[in-house]
């Protein structure tokens, strides 16, 4: 004798089977495991803000929390970062031809406006200051800074300003 299951039990069983299949698929995808199961996913809002900055060449003052440190400065587009960084690194090379080669190589990584870009994985800060627990920046005046978006624990719009003691 076959026992007929009510419709709601059949639906629940089908839903559970689909959920199990989806979970099995996610666990086989290494990227999904790293992002969703190990808790190191990228903040989609921060990634969106970096993408907006890259596409529109806008700048925003931000303060990031990274591993217990506060990093505050101006969020800049990738291409501006590469321009500034290539200038800094080529300046430190004494030989003119080598410096120009390094500069051109770095600038070769610039994003092209007509190409679709993958979701950004790095954030670029100009005039970045890293603040210590006493509220003072380690290097007043700041520098160029590049970090992994996945390493950012939190962020806020606006910039920290150290109160200078005389």
Describe this structure in words.
The chain is α+β, with helices and mostly antiparallel strands. It folds into two domains: about 1-40; about 40-155, SH3 type barrels (Roll), CATH 2.30.30. Helices cover about 40% and strands about 20% of the residues. It is built from five helices and five strands; from the N terminus they run H-H-H-E-E-H-H-E-E-E. The chain has helices at about 5-30, 30-35, 45-55, 80-90, 95-105, and strands at about 60-65, 70-75, 120-130, 145-150, 155. A five-stranded antiparallel β-sheet has the order 4-3-2-1-5. A hairpin with a 2-residue loop joins strand 1 (about 60-65) and strand 2 (about 70-75). Helix 4 runs antiparallel to helix 5 (about 95-105). It starts with 6 loop residues before the first helix and ends in a 9-residue tail after the last strand. The mean pLDDT is about 80. InterPro entries: GvpU-like.
Q: What is the H-and-E element order?
A: HHHEEHHEEE
| Tally of alpha and pi helices | 5
**How do the strands line up in the largest sheet?**
4-3-2-1-5
Compute the CA-based radius of gyration.
24 Å
Give the end-to-end Cα distance, rounded to a whole number of Å: 92 Å
Largest sheet: 5 strands, antiparallel
Contiguous uncertain segments of 5+ residues: none
Binned strand content: 15-25%
Shape field = elongated
Kindly give the count of domains: 2
CATH architecture of the largest domain: Roll
Structural class: alpha+beta
């Amino acid at each position: 004798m076959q026992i007929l299951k009510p419709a709601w039990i059949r639906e629940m069983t089908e839903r559970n089977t689909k959920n199990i299949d989806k979970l099995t698929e996610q666990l086989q995808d290494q990227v999904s495991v790293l992002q969703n199961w190990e808790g190191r996913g990228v903040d989609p809002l921060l990634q969106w803000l970096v993408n907006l900055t890259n596409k529109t060449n806008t700048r925003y003052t931000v303060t990031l929390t990274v591993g217990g440190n506060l990093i505050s400065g101006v969020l800049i587009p990738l291409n501006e970062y590469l321009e500034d960084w290539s200038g800094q690194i080529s300046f430190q090379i004494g030989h003119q031809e080598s410096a120009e080669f390094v500069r051109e190589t770095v600038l070769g990584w610039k994003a092209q406006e007509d190409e679709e870009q993958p979701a950004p994985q790095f954030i670029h800060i100009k005039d970045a200051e890293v603040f210590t627990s006493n509220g003072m920046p380690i290097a007043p005046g700041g520098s160029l800074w590049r970090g992994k978006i996945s390493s950012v624990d939190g962020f806020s719009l606006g910039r920290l300003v150290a109160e200078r003691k005389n």
